[in-house]
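Quick one, tokens below:
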């Protein structure tokens, strides 16, 4: 019942639910996390872009930056010319996959 008090007092933003939605909410965040997970190896930017079509370059860049700031995605830059950057899930990002799997299962059942 204590959880209901958050809603009654308009403090939903103080819940774990709100925090989780902040991390994975957005048009392409869940798809990006799944693309990184299902590949099982780090992906370069253009490979992600192809997997997430019709995402725009700007939207993919913003999504990856937000996921990196949240600690869900690791960005590795290789010092070479031309620059090489690879993206992979962090352990925190990996820990979200079962949660997203449950959301998908619910969606398929309903």
């Amino acid at each position: 019942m204590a959880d209901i008090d958050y809603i009654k007092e308009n403090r939903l933003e103080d819940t774990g639910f709100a925090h989780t939605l902040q991390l994975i909410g957005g048009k392409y965040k869940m798809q990006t996390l799944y693309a990184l997970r299902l590949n099982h190896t780090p992906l370069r930017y253009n490979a992600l872009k192809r997997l997430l079509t019709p995402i725009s370059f700007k939207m993919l860049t913003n999504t990856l930056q937000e996921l990196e700031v949240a600690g869900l995605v690791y960005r590795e830059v290789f010092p070479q010319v031309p620059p090489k950057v690879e993206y992979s899930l962090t352990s925190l990002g990996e820990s979200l996959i079962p949660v997203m799997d449950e959301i998908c299962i619910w969606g398929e059942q309903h």
